[in-house]
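Lab notebook, bench 4. The sequencing result for the construct came back, and we need a structural model before the next group meeting so we can plan mutations. Quick request posted to the team channel:

Model the 3D structure of this chain.
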Amino acid sequence: APAGMARCLDVGLAVNEDLTCEYHRSKLSSLTVEGTVQVRVKSSRLGDDDEDDDEEAKGMSSAAVPPPPFLLAFRDRSGHIKALQENKKFVENVTHETAGDADEDREFTYTVGVPREEEYFPVVRYKCGSSLRPVPIRVQSRVRTQGKHCRIALQISSNPQNPSDLVHLTIIMGVPPGVEGESMRCNPPGGVWNEKKRVVLWCVSELGRGEKFQLQSIFQIEEENAEDGGDEKELEFPVLARCQCSGAQLSDVELEVSEASSDLFPASTGRVSKTVVQRFRVSHKESNR
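Done. Here's the predicted structure in token form:
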């Protein structure tokens, strides 16, 4: 690049967080929140608004020169982060500042350089501590047996405080030995029995804030178990609920970008802007034993 030529940098930031939790009889047993930050860079010459530029020349220029580096500030306002891991392939010159208590309002600044434009690269992974206990959904199940039949009532509730709707909800319920899975009747209909895995699968496209999805299923108990009284305490129907939420995150991590200089780009990059996309996924397991 010619000396002194400023380049604008548009940094796309993707924040993905995963909540994995397990409950026994609605009591929390374990919970983890982990996240990743990915970056995608697009650069242009300052003031270059000509849409008729020669595309081949632009492609050659982009291939010859990697996008300029930039500074990424990772701010942990509430001290949610327990562990951070930087991707050394793309991250260097890490600095750490604390504005408040040692565990709160921390800021990590990274110099980030990626080899190509228009492609996402992972730069930071993090794990949150026990101070963050989000509850996007609540799973409740109740098992009742009567004679040769077993009835399971299941309710999935979306937290009214969720930032937006939950989507792509899948519910997987395990069916214990001694219960005839193929005899299942459910209301509302739609459950799919998988004999090989001995699970029933339901799919729900969307669950709005504060909404509930309720279902009941009835199974026939095998003869020898029915004769023993079909003790419901011995019958476990574990439930795994998975869903996701776009445009939101579980932690309050904040990201900022600014210009950085390097040997290849000693001049100002001109302007550094950012766009942020967020998503969190939930894996919630509930057992009734």
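Residues 50-54, 56-62 have pLDDT under 50 and may be disordered.
Will bring this to the meeting.
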